[in-house]
Design goal:
Blueprint: H1 4-10, H2 17-30, H3 33-45, H4 52-64, H5 68-81, H6 88-100, H7 104-113, H8 119-131, H9 135-144, H10 150-162, H11 166-178, H12 185-198, H13 201-213, H14 222-234, H15 238-247, H16 253-265, H17 269-280, H18 288-301, H19 304-318, H20 324-336, H21 340-349, H22 356-369, H23 372-385, H24 390-402, H25 406-418, E1 427-431, E2 437-441, H26 450-466, H27 482-489, H28 493-504, E3 511-515, H29 521-534, E4 538-541, E5 546-550, E6 553-554
Parallel strand pairs: 3-4
Antiparallel strand pairs: 1-2, 1-3, 4-5, 5-6
Helix pairs in contact: 2-3, 2-4, 3-4, 4-5, 4-6, 6-7, 6-8, 7-8, 8-9, 8-10, 9-10, 10-11, 10-12, 11-12, 12-13, 12-14, 13-14, 14-15, 14-16, 15-16, 16-17, 16-18, 17-18, 18-19, 18-20, 19-20, 20-21, 20-22, 21-22, 22-23, 22-24, 23-24, 24-25, 26-28, 26-29, 28-29
């Protein structure tokens, strides 16, 4: 803080509580924070009376200096001196201190003992609960809030979105609209994130309309524009994402990066590289996310040499030092192209610590190229870095199964049982008529339209066989007879979702499927053939990327 106020204060022989408090508040805001504490101590020693703002100011100094021990002492003094325990402003500041100090239960106790509360009291705790993942407690508090303003509603929308609960986030946003509560930039970013997680086109269009009506459309707001690009990309509507990008008057590194990543996710590697080159012609400098998008595009497009060149220029030309995520992209690029030994050498020589994503990229490449030896090396590291990462065990088991190493498959499954790990069920969901989302589990034949779904799949299979399709039995990681493998393949969740999509949508409408794990090779071939027979575009978003199937061809070029 500027020394001038302190010099003026020194000229006062008997400063009153308000002069003390003003100076304490100044130090609590601008530092040094220890001066706030020194002044407070002097104030007490001289017997100067205290006012409520004295306590709120000194508590804020404790928050700023992360001195929770002193903060607790000040809290105790508000009680021992008397007359301040019912002060709303002091109580709210105490809640803020305990929440930021990691003592949420203490903050809740202060809240519960308050005789008077305002929206700040409620919202502070609601946000704190969502940040620690306890959205149920946040919802309970929200329900008890007498007057729910935009901040409170936004806290619930963003809280559920940040905790991977997109359906609930959208439900709160819908209620917020029903009650006519105003929407701001933070609310929209939260609900856009929820929509991106869910991958629902119906909600994407609706949210875009609300953004435009609120005066926060992408042409006026670069933050909303960037978020919409990401949302449309994750909803499978890459054309809509690019339309938003083109309509933005102002663009920044986030809007460029979102579009580049979107193109990469959808397998449009050339478009991603072209946009990156256009970006370099502007004054906007690429950041770490930009390079992740570009390197991912190179990986999905099989552009090894281009990826190598871009990676080598990151630090020298653009001042972006590669981190583990960039090395993971390079390992993926080399691994997908069959350069497994080079990918392993890159990991062993990288100057930064490797993480699960790096070794996971190598393990995934080993599955593509059927290399159980290097897979074992990658899996060993993954089991140490991510001991509870069920996907790593399943991937190694599948690699062994594809190589016919059933004893090794049994060993991996035994290790999973020993560690109490259970395989996440394969799940796919598809948007049906009127935007309703339908979920399908692998092998689940309980849907109300099961008979029609089964008949549709049988008809498709008969037509596909006439075109030369044969089931890829290696996609079944179980040591069972061939007929059982064929039966299991026909009940994969994405095939069930496809059949329902064909039944429930009009001819010419794209079918968009979201899957929680990687699409298997058999389903990939099946989707290619189905797109030709049904004369439909089929978009599948798995946990790795998007696949656009049209006229028997996939956007990934069978390189994924």
């Amino acid at each position: 803080m500027d020394p001038y106020p302190r010099l003026l204060f020194a000229q006062v022989k008997q400063p009153n509580p308000f002069l003390y408090t003003a100076l304490i508040r100044g130090y609590s805001l601008y530092g040094p924070f220890t001066e706030s504490i020194t002044l407070y101590t002097r104030m007490r020693r001289e017997g100067t009376g205290l006012v409520s703002f004295t306590f709120s100011a000194i508590i804020k100094a404790c928050i700023a200096s992360l001195d929770l021990v002193l903060g607790r002492q000040i809290h105790a003094q508000t009680i021992s001196i008397g007359g301040f325990t019912s002060d709303l402003y002091i109580s709210n500041t105490l809640i803020d201190m305990y929440v930021k100090g990691g003592f949420l239960d203490c903050g809740r106790q202060v809240f519960d003992e308050m005789t008077e509360r305002d929206v700040i009291s409620w919202t502070s705790l609601i946000v704190a609960y969502t940040k620690c993942g306890n959205v149920e407690a946040a919802a309970e508090l929200f329900d008890g809030l007498p007057v729910k303003d935009m901040v409170a509603w936004t806290s619930m929308v963003t809280g559920f979105a940040q905790n991977a609960r997109p359906r609930e986030a959208l439900e709160y946003f819908e209620k917020m609209q029903d009650y006519g509560v105003e929407t701001d930039e933070i609310t929209l970013v939260g609900v856009i994130s929820a929509c991106a997680q869910l991958g629902a086109t119906k909600h994407a269009k609706w949210i875009r309309e609300i953004a435009d009506k609120s005066g926060l459309g992408p042409s006026k707001n670069v933050v909303i524009g960037s978020a919409l690009i990401d949302m449309y990309s994750k909803c499978g509507s890459i054309d809509d994402a690019y339309e938003v990008f083109q309509g933005m008057k102002d663009r920044n590194v986030f809007s460029y990066s979102s579009m580049i990543v979107g193109f990469a996710m959808h397998g449009f590697a050339k478009s991603a590289i072209q946009l990156f080159n256009e970006m370099l012609k502007t004054d906007i400098k690429p950041n770490g996310v930009t390079f992740i998008g570009v390197l991912t595009a190179c990986s999905h497009g099989g552009m090894v040499e281009k990826g190598r060149r871009i990676f080598s220029t990151m630090k020298a030309f653009y001042g972006v030092a590669p981190v583990a995520d960039h090395y993971a992209c390079m390992v993926d690029l080399l691994g997908r192209s069959g350069l497994l030994e080079e990918a392993l050498d890159l990991i062993r020589t990288m100057p930064v610590a490797s993480h699960g994503g790096v070794w996971g990229a190598l393990l995934g490449a080993c599955r593509i190229h059927g290399n159980p030896d290097i897979a074992e090396i990658a899996a060993t590291h993954l089991f140490e870095l991510e001991p509870n990462g069920i996907g790593n065990y399943i991937l190694l088991s599948n690699i062994y199964a594809s190589s016919g190493k059933w004893d090794d498959v049994s060993q991996v499954r035994k290790l999973m049982r020993m560690r109490g790990l259970k395989k996440n069920p394969s799940l796919s969901w598809v948007e049906g008529a009127k935007g309703v989302i339908h979920e399908f589990f692998a092998g689940d034949m309980t849907h109300p339209k099961t008979i029609e779904i089964k008949k549709t799949l049988e008809d498709l299979l008969d037509k596909l066989k006439l075109n030369g399709y044969t089931p890829n039995l290696s996609s079944v990681p179980y040591d069972v007879v061939d007929e059982e493998k064929k039966r299991l393949l026909m009940t994969h969740s994405e095939k069930l979702a496809l059949a329902y999509g064909l039944l429930s949508t009009d001819q010419g409408i794209s079918i968009k499927i979201v899957k929680n794990i990687r699409i298997c090779e058999d389903c990939h071939s099946f989707m290619c053939g189905a797109s030709m027979i049904a004369k439909r575009e089929i978009v599948v978003r798995d946990n790795m990327r998007f696949h656009h199937f049209l006229d028997g061809i996939c956007s990934c070029g069978n390189f994924w």
